[in-house]
Every structure is written in C-alpha cells, then in structure tokens.
C-alpha cells in the first residue's frame, strides 16, 4: 500500500516546547508520532508549527499533497489576543481550503472551531487536569465512525481550562461530560471534514502526571485548581488508579478510527 502523507501541527510556542525538552517531556507532536506508530508505519509525517515558522511558504506550496492533518494540544488560550494564536487561526483556514481530513485534538479543536466561526471561552464548570471522567457518547456519536467499538461512557487523558460554547454552522455534537458539554464534534467547511476532540486519546496518563508536576506551581498559584501540593498528589493518585484499569487499545480507539478513515479514498 502506498504511504499516506500526514501533516502534524504543533500547537505550543517554541519556548514551551523547549521547557518540555529541558524537563524530559515529549512535545505534543512527538507524542502524536509515537501513538501513530503503534498502529502504522505507513505514513510520511511532516511537522509544522505556525507559531515559530515565520513563513507559511514552507508548507503552503505542498499542502495539497497531505491526505490528512492532525492538529494537537497547546497551553495557549484561544481568546488571548497574540500573534501566535492569530497565526494558528490563519493557518487553520488555509488547511480548510486544502486538506480533506482533519483530526483536531483539544487545542486543535478550539482553533478549528474559532477559524470556522464558533466560539471558545473559559470553562464555567472547572478544568480537566490530566483526566476527563465520564465522557458520554450521545446518539449522534454512537452512529459516527469516530466512536466505532468505543464504550458509550469512558474516561480519557485530558488537560484543558477552556471549552467550545458555540459550534460552527452545520456542526454535529457527539459527546459530553460534566465539565465540558462539547467533548467531540464533526463538521465540514471548505474541502475539510473535521473530527474534533476536547480530550487526548493520543497522550498517556503517565505524560499527564508529568505535566501536572511540571505545572504544579501555576496550577496552585495562578490557575487556582489546587490548594497545595498535597491536594495535587491526591489527584495524581487518582490518575494512577485509572492507569491500573485503563486499556491502551480502548484509550486510543479514536485515533485508530481516524486512521482507518484516512485510508479510505
């Protein structure tokens, strides 16, 4: 079988990725590549970062060669007015004109929704810190290929403070939980068919725990998600218990299902 061309978009700014590397944490693009390799080696993968690449001409002339795009996570907030976010929204709109199949994960979904005319705001019901509990697939989701063979209710790695509050025109809502009403969507715009997830099937719980430890001061003093380190450790213990019962095949099923969709001409 001919190898498919896949573009991965890195959502974090370069300074964040450098901090990751200094602390032994894989970038989100690296995590994606590792998870994809679990399912297939038949991909030609390029990585592009709209924040740090000053010239889109590096990728735009060859953008139509990509059979699919995965746009991953970021520590940014879409409603903040900065050039890095503007560049990402602008590049997403270029992707809508050229790439048929897009998997938009967490930050990626928020960028896609914003670029297509929807709205993202800070969540009213709190945040997901390393894990999203009790995500429930609705009737639309049950019949969608994103959730083929998926349990109707499940937990997943997740890390987000914001949520989609209004959808692009024609978007279909697929799943929810108590923190985020909109946990997954499907919509079409331009030439693109976008599958969007607010959570991270491609990131392990172990990496999420590492991120919590990496961000602990900010989680306590800035985000105000925890009172102290003792409370953070209690939450980490909760995630470690989830690791004991979590199954990799089930956790990453959405990624597998999208890859199966990517292979369909």
Unreliable stretches, pLDDT < 50, 5 or more residues? none
Counting DSSP H or I runs of 4 or more residues, the number of helices is: 10
What oligomeric state is this?
A: single chain
Task: Provide the CATH superfamily.
Answer: Class I glutamine amidotransferase (GATase) domain
Q: Biggest sheet, open or closed, and with what strands and sense?
A: 9 strands, mixed
Q: How many domains is the backbone divided into?
A: 1
Binned, the helix content reads: 25-40%
Instruction: Name the average pLDDT.
Output: 96
CATH top level class name: Alpha Beta
Q: What is the strand content? A: 15-25%
CATH topology-level name: Rossmann fold
If classified by CATH, what would the architecture be?
A: 3-Layer(aba) Sandwich
Give the CA-CA distance, first to last residue. 12 Å
General shape: globular
Rg result: 17 Å
- For the largest sheet, list the strands in their spatial order: 2-1-3-4-13-12-11-7-8
Structural class: alpha/beta
SSE order: EHHEEHEHEEEHEEEEEEHHHHH
